[in-house]
Design goal:
It is built from nine helices and 20 strands. By secondary structure, it is an alpha+beta fold. The strands form four sheets. It has a six-stranded mixed sheet with strand order 6-7-8-3-9-10, with helices on both faces. Strands 13-12-11-14-20 form a five-stranded antiparallel sheet. Strands 15-19-16-17-18 form a five-stranded antiparallel sheet, with no helix packed on it. It is elongated. It starts with a strand and ends in a 10-residue tail after the last strand. Bound molecules: adenosine-5'-triphosphate. The site of adenosine-5'-triphosphate has 12 residues, from strand 2 and helix 1. One of its GO terms (molecular function) is ABC-type transporter activity.
């Protein structure tokens, strides 16, 4: 087990493309950290630099206080699990797990003990004599996990390890991986582009875009205190509704208005906008923070329902506000129908205000 520190870590491909740029991060001993972001944001590049599989252009990788930036991969005491499993097809499950230990010249009795221990941990004790071709995708991924666990690395690196599995198995493996992490307490860096995977597994999430870190925080931090428009839009399903609004001072109160919506501000939100000098602002409201009300006076807009998407536990209501589809999440009951008129209000504690130019959150988070 170990700590990890990345200092201004950067990777340039060719002359212009920065795969990762100025990545600064401290990972605590035993922490489960997830790199999350859209395709091409630099997650894999960063992970590979930590593993030593990618040459660093600038910056440092520090494991347990020791600068390993130029140390070869096998001397870093990290284990990597890939999306493609990378188990050896000509070896049995037992041999796959045992092989790295043999290379390290462990005595065969100890190898046997470790193989059985990790096989039990990932629930493949029954499969030790089989070859990978006789296993399902999920079982093969467990073998890759067991092999990585067996060498007791200082740090576990996982690059989208669940993305080749079907949706149901992914969700199951998430829970199991989290339980394994709980048991081993190994410092883990996990890469994914799936936000619900990140939210459900991470102690902290590192959200990346264009090679840079946009926000570092717990799942609650990045969801409730999103640092900017990108993070607020990336985290959450359905995504946050964004509105470009004008700041209007009207009979002693501040309103945020556009053609369809009128939001009167009070309390904390009014204070934030009082010290904001521009006349346009971006408002972000998550679908569950828009509320349907019978009181028309409280409505920030009144509109016809376009579509209702039943989800069992809740309903997603879509409303067409002049070329912008607004999504609202409401409980499963009462049932709503298309063409029904609804008055929509909002949870004033939960709206997010962003600078129209910098797109950053306009409050302390
Ligand atoms: N070998 C390479 N040569 C040139 N550019 C590269 C190379 N590898 C990655 N890149 C570029 O670096 C950027 C970051 O890529 P990276 O693979 O780290 O993204 P990612 O977040 O892991 O994406 P994905 O989720 O699609 O795997 C991208 O713009 C990518 O095109």
């Amino acid at each position: 087990m170990a700590t990890l520190e990345l200092v201004n870590l950067s990777k340039r491909y060719g002359k212009k493309v920065w795969g990762a740029k100025d990545v600064n991060l401290k990972v605590n001993d035993g922490e489960f950290v997830v790199f999350l972001g859209p395709s091409g944001c630099g997650k894999t590049t960063t992970l590979r630099m930590i593993a030593g599989l990618e040459e660093v252009t600038e910056g440092k990788v520090i494991i347990d206080g020791k600068d390993v930036t130029y140390l070869e991969p096998r001397k870093r005491e990290v284990s990597m699990v890939f999306q493609s499993y990378a188990v050896w097809p000509h070896m049995t499950v037992y041999e796959n797990i045992a092989f790295p230990l043999k290379l390290k010249k462990f005595p065969s009795e100890e190898i046997d003990k470790i193989v059985r221990e990790v096989a039990e941990m990932v629930k493949i004790e029954e499969l030790l004599k089989r070859f990978p071709s006789q296993l399902s995708g999920g079982q093969r991924q467990r073998v890759a996990l067991a092999r990585a666990l067996a060498v007791k690395p200082k740090i576990f690196l996982m690059d989208e390890p669940l993305s080749n599995l079907d949706a149901k198995l992914r969700v199951k493996m998430r829970t199991e991986l989290k339980a394994i992490h709980h048991k081993t307490g190994a410092t883990t860096i996990f890469v994914t582009h799936d936000q619900s995977e990140a939210m459900s597994m991470a102690d902290r999430i590192i959200i990346m875009k264009n090679g840079r870190i946009e926000q570092v925080g717990t799942p609650d931090d990045v969801y409730f205190n999103s640092a900017n428009v990108f993070v607020a839009g990336f985290i959450g399903t359905p995504p946050t509704n964004f509105f470009e609004m004008e700041v209007v001072r009207q009979s002693g109160r501040i309103h945020l208005k556009n053609e369809h919506i009128d939001i009167p501000l009070n309390g904390k939100n009014e204070k934030i906008v009082e010290s904001y000098s521009k006349n346009k602002i971006i408002v972000g409201i998550r679908p569950e923070n828009l509320l349907i009300t019978n009181n028309k006076d409280k409505a920030i807009f009144t509109e016809k329902i376009l579509v209702v998407e039943p989800q069992g536990s809740h309903q997603i209501i879509a409303v067409d506000l002049g070329e912008q589809i607004v999504k609202i999440v409401v409980p499963a009951f009462p049932k709503y129908n298309p063409d029904e008129m609804i008055n929509v209000t909002f949870d004033s504690e939960r709206i997010m205000l962003f600078d129209i130019e910098t797109k950053s959150r306009l409050e302390e988070y």
